[in-house]
Amino acid sequence: MPYTRLSSRNLDQSSGLLRPACVLPDRVNLENPALDVMTDFRRLTAFIATPGDSIRQAEERMVRRKVRLLFVMDSEDRVAGLITNTDIHGEKPMQVVQSRGIRRDEVLVADIMTPVDRLEAVDYEDIAHSRVGHVLETLKARGRQHALVIENVNGRQMVRGLLSLSQLCKQLGVSVVTTEVANTFLEIEQHLAHR
Hints:
It is built from 8 helices and 8 strands; from the N terminus they run ββαββαααββααββαα. The chain is of the alpha/beta class.
């Protein structure tokens, strides 16, 4: 079969670039589907770091990407752990500095990340059949800012999405002034009780 050349044209000066988009509703309530508050990595790129990155590099990547969490991927493209903005600005770096006698700029992601064997996740199928209220209760019961959502893809466990307490608060219309997880839940409950 003979092939013909496809027609082509020059790009416009105003051309943009399509990127995966995970568009979540601006506002939700506890009865909305849980998927309305899940960052879906089939629609939005997950941002990553490597264990050998410095914490400064990880922080710069977070700032540039406007995120507060990076997945730490090993050399075989497996999840090695997570690093959050709280990890970088909390006590962990100073503990490493003091225990190893190094400078703060020598602290690596691997030194302070939460390793994969300490990460908890919920199944995508459970999220797909749940409500926002279930997500809130799950984060509260675990005392966590984040929960991973996993899915089985061709026999391999894959991280499909992320549930974030800060994203949930934003969508619920709750303004939270504390970084303490327990106080955050208290503020959410107070806000929802006055609706």
